[in-house]
Amino acid sequence: MNYGHIRLNLGDLIEKSNLSKNKICQLCQIQHTQLNRYCKNEATRVDLNVLARICCVLECDIGDILTYVNGDETEEDIDK
């Protein structure tokens, strides 16, 4: 059975913000490599404290960063 997965939308949020990745790393006190993994949707485990800091810095909700993708959906469906 395909249960789906969680998609990180952080790259899109950062593009819309007026902050650089370097500034976000500094404000969130995280490594640039960690932020890049989140932005590229390559993180296999997420740190809830880091997500809370990112939400605070970007002034967004956790639902803006994380999206549940149903197992029946394709990548084309997601991008619509």
Structure description:
The chain has 80 residues and is mainly α. The chain has one domain (5-66): lambda repressor-like DNA-binding domains (434 Repressor (Amino-terminal Domain), Orthogonal Bundle), CATH 1.10.260. The protein has helices at 10-16, 21-28, 32-39, 48-58, 62-65, 75-78; strands at 5-8, 66-69. A two-stranded antiparallel ribbon has the order 1-2.
Biggest sheet: strand arrangement: 1-2
Number of domains: 1
Structure summary, number of beta strands: 2
Specify the structural class.
mainly alpha
The 3D shape can be described as: elongated
Report the CATH superfamily: lambda repressor-like DNA-binding domains
Give the CA-CA distance, first to last residue.
24 Å
Mean pLDDT: 91
SSE string, helix = H, strand = E?
Answer: EHHHHHEH
Poorly predicted tracts of residues: none
Q: Quaternary arrangement of the chains shown?
A: single chain
What fraction strand?
Answer: 5-15%
Percentage of helical residues? Answer: 40-55%
- The DSSP helix count reads 6
Radius of gyration: 13 Å
User: What would the CATH topology be?
Assistant: 434 Repressor (Amino-terminal Domain)
Largest sheet: number of strands, sense, barrel closure? 2 strands, antiparallel
